[in-house]
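Mods, move this if it's the wrong board.
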Amino acid sequence: MSLLLLCSATVEPLNSDFMAREFSMQFGGMAFTKGELLVFQFTDPEKGKSFTLSLVVKSIDGIDLNSAASGDEKARPFP
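Not the wrong board. Structure tokens:
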């Protein structure tokens, strides 16, 4: 899934590893649609600052889990 940041950009670098973990915790198990708007809030522990981001789902990839689990080499992500 690709996401587009809509709010004004910060000049500070953000910890993308922490953002990915936090996103998974907040949105794990949810289904999204292309064009869906999300609001994502996280606190960067290194900076002690809180950020609220508006995100739009740009694209979604999928995979056949049964094929992947069986080791089928044709099991690759599809749009």
